[in-house]
Amino acid sequence: MGKATSTPLLFQSKLLCFSLFYLFSSLFLALYFALSSTKCLFRSSPFDPIQAPLFSYPSSYGEHKYAIPTLRSSCTSPVYFSDYWMVLKEIQDFSRNSSWIGSQAMKYIHRTADSFGGNFSTQKRFSYFDHRYNGIKIPCGFFKEFPINISDRIAMEKCDGVVVVSAIFGDHDKIRQPRGLGSKTLDNVCFFMFVDDATLKGLAYHNLISRKSKEHIIGVWRIVKVSTKHLYENAAMNGVIPKYLVHRLFPNSKYSIWIDAKLQLVVDPLLLIHSVLVSENVDMAISRHPYYVHTMEEAMATARWKKWWDVDSLKKQMETYCENGLQPWTPKKLPYPSDVPDSALILRKHSMTSNLFSCLLFNELEAFNPRDQLAFAYVRDHMNPKLKINMFDVEVFEQVAMEYRHNLKSGGGVPSCKQGFKTKRASADLFVNGSCSKCERYLLKMWGESHD
Fold first, then answer.
1. Which residues, 6+ apart, have CB-to-CB distance to 18 below 8 Å?
2. Which of 148, 240, 261, 424 has its CA 20 to 30 A from that of 39?
3. Residue 105: which pLDDT band, with cuts at 50, 70 and 90?
4. Cβ pair 400, 41 in contact under 8 A
5. What does the pLDDT look like over 354-376, one tens digit per residue?
6. Where do transmembrane segments lie in this chain (predicted)?
7. DSSP 8-state code for residue 67
């Protein structure tokens, strides 16, 4: 009679053992990725103090409708974050360095004008691009009063560390609360949302605010009502003011994040600033465009899809830049990997160079249109001193922010900047019948047909 084996029957089969191991491993990984907000965000410590959601909206508001899914299933550009407490201390120490503000201060032109930006001529605007010799006053908006309450203005001046800024004009978006905030983040980061009266009425309709109150808070956001009656006729241009002149609205802040209202930030702003801005030792961080590399590609798309109502003015803008030295992107422009950003998310250190870029770009937007991607490369390439910028992968953008569709209005469609304006030219292309001769060399070089 044979000797009885001491190994349980269950483990005598190698195939069965392997199958069980595979099953439990798969279940563990599936559970891990299901509970993770993203597969591509890595914190150095799994014990970072992430807060629970801070605000609940009424069901009628529907702040999370119409999310736009991302198309990338793999992760080739993971985002690594340093320890939360180390990041917090580093940014706190920098923000408390009072000598930093004076050393980075710029001088601005102060006078009254018919427009908020002063409406300078082309050559006058370009004359301010060379700022290697400090002390020269430059135009940077505020030639008319920015109409907000004094209590909001005082709160903005008290924000002396990191500020997160957004805006909704024309009630075209929902207010979305950030996710993944650390336990001390709200003590060190200010959140300001600029709105017009139409947006404020929508918030009151959903009982999110009281029109009788002079100050409004929704979740983490302080709501700042802007009277746009004497600003720009176009709502998108009014939104450009807090987007690019954030360093003037928040004169004591050291870092800022601009986030379009169509986006929801899903990581802590301190960790994000440290990862893509501080660790990279740059003045600005912004995503490159998912499809376009050359400025003219974006200009053609803007005309083709009627993203701006005056197509003739688009041609004039591009001719102006081509005549004054705009070049298509080539490897010679490295370390800049592209000429076209996705400007829905902008992170800035409020350095002299970053502030100069913001002022110069704002002046171009007022001169032509609020499509900031069209002037981006021209200003970046021609300004002195040079801007240190991290143009990160689109995949990174999709990992740190969730995008939603704009509010749908009655009558169908999505609100656009051309509402209230009649398109001046219905051509589907920007350059037809050999027009725009000033950009011919640019186009030949972009298409690889130049023999220069």
1. none
2. 261
3. confident
4. yes
5. 999 999 999 999 999 999 999 99
6. 15-35
7. B
